[in-house]
Design goal:
Strand content: 15-25%
Number of domains: 4
CATH superfamily of the largest domain: DhaL domain
Number of strands: 16
CATH architecture of the largest domain: Alpha Horseshoe
CATH class of the largest domain: Mainly Alpha
Oligomer: single chain
CATH topology of the largest domain: Serine Threonine Protein Phosphatase 5, Tetratricopeptide repeat
Largest sheet: 6 strands, mixed
Strand order of the largest sheet: 13-12-9-16-14-15
């Protein structure tokens, strides 16, 4: 059943867009050849969407109107925008927010409003979004995300019906326009790929279709063929660079937030346009996000100081112009190259944080309902001051966040490897074999092997009635999970935990790790230690006070 464009829909859209960009991130990075072949468009879009989603979540703690929810999404994207593509996405969202706000206040519609047409607010919002994005770019180029946005807006304007029908039409037209981009930009044609920013916008619009209609559109093609179906495997990381080795351009990307008035920003645009290219200035109401490629980064920052108050200034050196734009990036934090290898672990409890710290890891604590953002993880990596780092996300939901954080740290010259740990007990196993004196690759292989050899289980308490892979549970039931799936439902934590252990040990095992949570019964660990002793010979048991939310985490090696 189609959904209206209300605050709940906006919230779900922001979440699904973030997830979709996370899944498409590597593909988008790989096809990034314009305006700079630096393989970061997917990452930049993900980071921008992440900031937008967090802002919407905060706004929805109250009871926002649709306009307030979209405005929160746009503001979050504005303050977290990364790169050219992220900055344009922020302006697209701002255009939508302005139009929906005017509609709520009775400022849109008029004689052209179609009676009973539920899709009119979204239709007008998409049209205004495309116009706002194009106006924010100093020198619009066809074959980019601007072309894709214009096609989406044109289709939306010509489509009658509800919001789902408008979104479907916009997505379909955007995808068609994306497939045509290699014929509009020589850089795309030489590389045989579609525009990376346009691919990201089609992905975001696909998430909107999924939320409004319940239909999940297939991913667009990344190559020039324009065939439908899932996106192909990511292209080689140097594909874009190979296609652009004859290009020249500014040496730096300068991005900052700016507090300034409209008149000052108009003058700033003129000055920055003379300094470089890829100029995009988005925002309004006194807060702007400025993005430009220049040779003289200092002059770009000085121009911002004359216009108002720049902050969150970020300068990225592309490297050798016309060649490998990843070459010789110097870390902004200038770490001591003699420092030992660092390990950063995400943990859900104070006890686990202490345990991992004792094993030599830097910890980032994840509170219930408050997962760390990629920027937080990136800062944790960079603050170690080490030239090499291993990241343990310890949660399958953090895979995209961890990947984006690693990309940020790598952009600063750090060598980062992610061990795909899906539970803290896998992180504990990886830390147990970590040896800083070993070669980096060998250490990563050993830690990955130890984590992969550890099966993980968990006890949690159902909050409401629900269907599970083990049947229907009721509120208050104890659920036993194995490798992320519900395997058992019961009434007593001790009984369910013992049954989970028996199943996990049925295939063999030498060591059981029990991480006791804040909600565990007082005698749970003692009961399980005795159970293992009686029923599983030659299996050792380790117990840790994790103080995490939920009764128990279980690891079997």
């Amino acid at each position: 059943m189609p959904h209206p464009l209300d605050a709940a829909t906006v919230r779900e859209w922001s979440a699904q867009a973030l997830d979709a960009l996370g899944r498409a991130r590597e593909t988008i990075d790989a096809i990034n050849v314009y305006p700079v072949a630096d393989a970061d468009t997917g990452t930049n879009l993900y980071l921008t969407a992440e900031s937008a989603a967090r802002a919407v979540e905060a706004a929805c703690a109250g009871e926002p109107t649709p306009a307030q929810a979209v405005r929160a999404m746009a503001h979050g994207a504005l303050i977290g925008a990364r790169g050219n593509s992220g900055t344009i996405l922020a302006q697209l969202l701002r255009g939508m927010a302005e139009e929906i706000a005017e509609a709520e206040n009775g400022g849109s519609g008029g004689p052209h409003e179609r009676a009973g047409d539920d899709g009119e607010p979204l239709r007008r919002a998409l049209v205004r979004a495309a116009a706002a994005a194009r106006a924010a770019v100093a020198h619009p180029v066809e074959g980019t995300v601007l072309t894709v946005a214009a096609a989406a807006a044109g289709a939306a304007a010509d489509t009658a019906g509800d919001c789902a029908a408008v979104a479907r039409a916009a997505w379909s037209a955007a995808r068609t326009a994306l497939e045509a981009t290699p014929g509009q930009l020589p850089a795309l044609s030489r590389a045989g790929v579609v525009d990376a920013g346009g691919y990201g916008l089609v992905t975001v619009l696909g998430a909107l279709v999924a939320v409004l209609s319940g239909e999940r559109p297939e991913a667009p093609a990344a190559g020039r063929s324009g065939t439908s179906g899932p996106a192909p495997d990511p292209l080689p990381a140097d594909a874009g660079c190979a296609a652009s080795t004859e290009q020249t351009g500014p040496a730096c990307e300068v991005v900052y937030l700016l507090e300034a008035g409209d008149d000052a920003v108009a003058a700033l645009r003129t000055r920055l346009d003379a300094l470089g290219d890829s100029l995009v200035v988005v925002g309004g109401d006194g807060l702007w996000n400025v993005h430009v490629h220049v040779d003289d980064a200092g002059a770009a920052v000085e121009a911002g100081i004359e216009a108002g108050r720049p902050f969150r200034i970020r300068i990225t050196h592309f490297g050798v112009r016309g060649g490998d734009r990843h070459a010789d990036r110097t870390p902004a934090h200038a770490p001591d190259r003699a420092a030992r290898r660092a390990v950063v672990a995400v943990v859900p409890g104070d006890g686990l944080a202490e345990l991992c710290a004792e094993a030599g890891a830097i910890t980032v604590t994840a509170r219930p309902g408050e997962p760390p953002a990629s920027g937080e993880l990136a800062q944790a990596l960079l603050r170690t001051g080490a030239p090499e780092a291993v990241l343990l996300p310890n949660d399958p939901e953090l895979r995209h966040t961890a990947a984006a954080a690693a990309e940020q740290a790598r952009a600063e010259g750090m060598r980062v490897a992610i061990i795909p740990t899906r539970s803290p007990v896998q992180g504990i196993a990886a830390l147990a074999v970590h040896e800083p004196g070993r070669r980096f690759d060998e250490d990563v292989v050993a830690m990955t092997s130890a984590a992969g050899a550890t099966r993980y289980g968990e006890l949690c308490v159902a909050e409401r009635q629900a269907w599970t892979t083990a049947g229907i549970c009721q509120a208050g039931d104890v659920l036993g999970l194995i490798d992320g799936d519900v395997a058992l439902i019961g009434a007593r934590a001790a009984d369910v935990a013992a049954a989970v252990l028996d199943r996990m040990l049925s295939g063999g095992g030498e060591l059981v790790t029990l991480v006791v949570g804040a909600d565990a019964p007082a005698d749970l660990a003692d009961h399980l230690e005795e159970h293992v002793r009686r029923n599983h010979l030659a299996v050792d048991t380790l117990v840790h006070e994790g103080r995490q939310s939920g009764p128990l985490l279980i690891g079997v090696e």
